[in-house]
Amino acid sequence: MARFPSMDDKCAVLYLSRLQPDDLNLDHLTDSKRQKIQQLHLTYNRLLLLPPSVCFLCNLEYLDISNNALTVIPDDIMRLTNLKTFVAKNNLLDESSFPKEFERMQVKTLNLSGNRFEEIPQQFLKMTTLQSLSLGGNRLKNIPAEIENLTSLELLYLGGNLISFIPPEVANLTSLRYLVLCDNRIQSIPPQLNKLHSLLSLSLHNNLLTFLPREILSLVHLQELSLRGNPLVVRFIKDMTYDPPSLTELAGRTIKSQNLPFSSCDLPSNLNHYLNLASKCPNPKCAGVYFDSCVRHIKFVDFCGKYRLPLMHYLCSPQCSSPCSSNPQSDAESEDENSVPADRLQRVLLG
Q1: 83 pLDDT exceeds 90?
Q2: Residue 325 is inside which H or E element, if any?
């Protein structure tokens, strides 16, 4: 039989792990004892259903039902209005397992790693109080754009899934401090992630990354960047792709680079708008511009005098020489380490 803590305990914690079904019945507890329970651990009990008596612990703040065989969370879970942490790792739960009204729960920490989710339930995407969401080791194939609704989120753990694309809306999670996307199928990182100014740790190991966007250097508070297990190899440094510019782009480049005079009355409104979209070539030795057609160029930037990160930047044409050499073997020709402040990245994990 489970042992209940002393009634003098200010915060009662009840552990009911590896027990027989009869020992999991809380009906024998008095009302005063039930009101005292704030943490309940029901792990490793081979539960198929959550005991109904659990949902009558009105002051419960922490519930851990990990390592069971649960396939559904009952509607009565909504009775736990004080619940702040809900952990249900390693069960058989999926996106249809939760009550439709679950979004009304004021949960701050939700850990459902090691289940059978193929998509993030819509209820979760409306939980604006959520600070930590863990769905690692599931079967997720994508991150919905609605993830941006979780404005209080500080930790997002989606490692060990089947994700191949990161939507730019992730960049709207301005409170995010820890982003874990390891062990997926991600091929590129959206440059918009440079808006995550609070980010401390970015885990991207064991994906399919061949480069990083240069904008990642804007993450000034980043302390740990994990990249091991990605095809970040030297051969990509000379990889260039180039789509020939259209006649419209050629005309636009000529006007912008040679500063040809014109007034808004001289051109149709759509062309005036197009000319305002010009991007200046990042090569300081080049005065060119580009619109839609540019060269994708990968160069290595030194960090901490030890690691080189392949960063993406764009040039206006294949004839435009890079502002730094693409020879990864030459320290003299690679970007000066001093150009990257030492406090930008405390740890870069490449192997």
Answers
A1: yes
A2: none
Asked if residue 298 belongs to a domain, the reply is: no
Residues 6+ apart with CB under 8 A from 137: 113, 114, 115, 159, 160, 161
Residue 74 sits at φ, ψ, to 5 deg, of: -70, 155
Q: CB–CB of 52/76 below 8 Å?
A: yes
- The enclosing H or E element of 62 equals strand 62-64
What's phi and psi for 280, nearest 5 deg? -75, 135
pLDDT single digits (tens) 265-316: 777 777 777 777 777 777 667 767 766 666 555 555 554 444 456 666 566 6
Q: Is 212 helix (H, G, I), strand (E, B) or coil?
A: strand
CA 151 – CA 142 distance, rounded (Å) = 19
Number of domains the chain is built from:
2
Q: Who's near 246: CB < 8 A, 6+ residues apart?
A: 292, 293
Structure tokens at 71: 């396939």
Whether residues 285 and 191 fall in one domain: no
| Residue 313 CA from chain centroid, whole number | 22
Both 158 and 270 in a single domain?
A: no
Per-residue pLDDT reduced to its tens digit, 11-47: 689 998 888 776 777 877 888 888 999 999 999 999 9
In a domain, 217, yes or no: yes
Span 154-195, pLDDT tens digits: 999 999 999 999 999 999 999 999 999 999 999 999 999 999
Residue 48: count other Cβ atoms within 10 Å of its Cβ: 12
- pTM value is 0.70
Residue 238 domain-assigned?
no
Cα 105 to Cα 93: distance, rounded to the nearest angstrom: 18
- Give the Cα separation of 303 and 344 in Å (integer): 9
In the DSSP assignment, the letter for residue 336 is P
C-beta neighbour count of 146 within 10 angstroms: 14
Count of other CB atoms within 10 angstroms of residue 37: 23
CATH number where 225 lies: 3.80.10.10
Q: Which residues span the domain enclosing 283?
A: 247-290
Q: Tokens in use for 309?
A: 């990160």
Structure-model confidence comparison of residues 60 and 20, the more confident one: 60
